[in-house]
Amino acid sequence: MRHAIFLLTLLLLAHPAPADWLREEADVMGTRITVELFHSDPEVAQQSIEAVLEEMRRIDASMSPYIESSELARLNAAAGHAAFKTSGELFSLIERSLHFSELSDGAFDITFASVGFLYDYRKSKRPDAGQLKEATALINYRNLILNTDQKTIRFNKPGVRIDLGGIAKGYAVDRCIGLLQQRGIRQALITAGGDSRMIGDRWGRPWTIGVRNPRNEDELVAVIPLMDVAVSTSGDYERFFEEDGVRYHHIINPASGKSASEMQSVTIIGPDATTTDALSTTVFVMGLEAGLQLINRMPDIDAIVVDRNGELHYSESLQPAKKMDAGVNPSAQPVSD
Ligand code: ADP
Ligand code: MG
């Protein structure tokens, strides 16, 4: 699987990380997880990696729409008929999702799934015009009725569905970073697909991330050194098929029920991965002008976007000059993805 963010170890090619840095990869949530960390006690380091992977699996088992027994799938099956009692964890993440819906006037909307489930990108399957019209009418985050005291959720129309694919991986990364911090780890990187968060530095240098060219996986359009932040990318090249020159991909514009077509990729940098994950999807749907306006209003958030024409744009506080900072060698190749 290809991801928009390449984690580059450019400086480390000359200065390899010492043996006591641990790195492990696994496939969870239908996506590639990478954990890299340092602890002076190798046993603590190894146990910490295992704790991260276990936490990822736990969240997948409760929030995957594809697992019939998941809490999310049970909510979808029940909440159209009666209020469904949720765990505090699921309830909070749905509340946070609604926050991004309000912030973006519905560009981010977990009820996109009312239409989303009709697409199958692997099988080049999409709804016909009639299905699209009917299902798009069900998309509206206001169709979710939350009872904060009871922690129940009800859909005010049958047929409404939710999917946390635009926020759950970022949430999982944040949870796992929290686990590492509890264990006294001060240098680590966790990546789940297009969502990453790092703590500290890597062997005395910043972590380095690259944004790939959405139309050429071997080319980077920006390289940035970073420390103690989260980064997420949403792209139209991760899950898609083409038909008659139209690209059908997994980011849905709630207004039309069709794939959002204003952007090729959106990368968001911010303090936590739940926020950057949700905002990368949000800005992708909002498009260039409205999306960057939203980001420029948020003091601790930055964006790097590639618009529908393949042109690169930055949010105000992220100067392009920064992208080749810190002695990064732009001709070096990514060593992992
Ligand atoms: P990924 O890392 O899986 O590519 P993204 O952060 O790019 O994730 O988000 C895409 C996912 O978000 C989709 O697979 C879908 O589950 C969900 N999604 C799609 N459109 C929307 C939307 N308008 N609002 C909220 N979530 C969405
Ligand atoms: Mg996202």
SSE diagram, text form:
Layout: E1 5-8, H1 10-14, E2 21-28, E3 31-38, H2 42-63, H3 71-78, E4 84-85, H4 88-103, H5 113-116, H6 129-136, E5 144-147, E6 152-155, H7 168-182, E7 187-192, E8 195-199, E9 207-213, E10 216-226, E11 230-235, E12 240-243, E13 246-249, E14 252-253, E15 258-259, E16 263-270, H8 273-286, H9 288-296, E17 302-307, E18 312-314
Antiparallel strand pairs: 1-9, 2-3, 3-7, 4-6, 5-6, 7-8, 8-11, 9-10, 11-16, 12-13, 14-15, 16-17, 17-18
The protein binds adenosine-5'-diphosphate (ADP) and magnesium ion (MG).
Please characterize this protein's 3D structure.
With 337 residues, the chain is α+β, with helices and mostly antiparallel strands. It has a domain at 8-62 and 168-324: ApbE-like domains (T-fold), CATH 3.10.520.10. It contains 9 helices and 18 strands. The chain has helices at residues 10-14, 42-63, 71-78, 88-103, 113-116, 129-136, 168-182, 273-286, 288-296; strands at residues 5-8, 21-28, 31-38, 84-85, 144-147, 152-155, 187-192, 195-199, 207-213, 216-226, 230-235, 240-243, 246-249, 252-253, 258-259, 263-270, 302-307, 312-314. An 8-stranded antiparallel beta sheet has the order 2-3-7-8-11-16-17-18. A 3-stranded antiparallel beta sheet has the order 1-9-10, with no helix packed on it. A hairpin with a 2-residue loop joins strand 9 and strand 10 (216-226). Helix 2 (42-63) runs antiparallel to helix 7, helix 7 (168-182) packs antiparallel against helix 8 (273-286) and helix 8 runs antiparallel to helix 9. The longest helix is centred in the first third of the chain and has 22 residues, at 42-63. Residues 1-15 and 322-337 have low confidence and may be disordered. The protein binds adenosine-5'-diphosphate (ADP) and magnesium ion (MG). The site of adenosine-5'-diphosphate has 20 residues, from helix 8.
